[in-house]
Design brief:
Radius of gyration: 16 Å
Order of helices and strands: HHHEHEHEHEHEHHEE
Strand order of the largest sheet: 3-2-1-4-5-7-6
Strand content: 15-25%
CATH topology: Rossmann fold
Number of strands: 7
CATH superfamily: Vaccinia Virus protein VP39
Structural class: alpha/beta
């Protein structure tokens, strides 16, 4: 169900910024973003949780991804956190409208410092995913580490976000990155290196896929 566990975000400034950015945009977010947030559905397909598995989305926004994942994996238990109360309000409404309040639980939390136990009452998740949020989180390295740390044995972390557009024409690349900056979006050039460091010595495998000439990068860190 869409319960009300809360965790006070440690970065109140970022919380206020995200509420301001999305207070109005949240109402048209899914309609407009479907044209350029590429790779999200591929990430959801790659989750492949077993029946009864727990799946967390960090930065769940409007709940769009959680709703699709819940429909695709009806026997999984879905959870979402976001620092923006405005986005969570929209997510709760969308999830209720989809009839999935019994399968998806939401909580307000800071992606860089959250406790699965405090929020949801169990220590770890089978799957954790982050879709186009790493590029908007100031301390994104801490968010990646927190997401990886929330995995249980045999779990996997999945991330899709803007790449460096390395295969695009230079003019198109510059225009895209200038446009992204208007929305406080910064593609993380060393995301793969940070994930490789997290995975090192942890009996894990890191998979990387570059989509659409590097427009988007898709990563999966899988615990053995």
């Amino acid at each position: 169900m869409t319960a009300e566990p809360h965790s006070a975000p440690s970065d109140a400034g970022h919380s206020r910024l995200m509420d301001a950015v999305y207070r109005r945009q949240r109402h048209i977010y899914d309609v407009t973003r479907k044209f350029y947030l590429l790779g999200r559905d591929r990430l959801i397909a790659d989750l492949a949780p077993s029946p009864g598995d727990t799946v967390l989305e960090v930065g769940c926004g409007t709940g769009r991804n959680l709703i699709l994942a819940a429909r695709r994996y009806p026997q999984a238990r879905l959870y979402g956190i976001d620092i923006s109360e405005a986005m969570l309000a929209t997510a709760r409404a969308n999830i209720a409208k989809a009839g999935l309040a019994g399968q998806i639980t939401l909580a307000r939390a800071d992606a860089t410092a959250f406790s699965p136990g405090n929020l949801f009452g169990f220590p770890a998740f089978d799957r954790v995913f982050i879709s186009y949020a790493v590029s908007m989180i100031p301390d994104w390295q801490a968010a990646a580490a927190a997401a990886f740390g929330a995995l249980g044995p045999g779990g996997s972390l999945h991330i899709v976000d803007f790449g460096q557009q390395e295969g695009l024409p230079p003019v198109a690349r510059r225009l895209l990155q200038a446009w992204l900056r208007r929305f406080h979006v910064t593609p993380r050039a060393n995301l793969g290196d940070v994930l490789a460091t997290l995975a090192a010595g942890q009996d894990t495998r890191l998979d990387e896929t570059r989509l659409h000439r590097g427009y988007a990068w898709l990563f999966a860190v899988r615990r053995s």
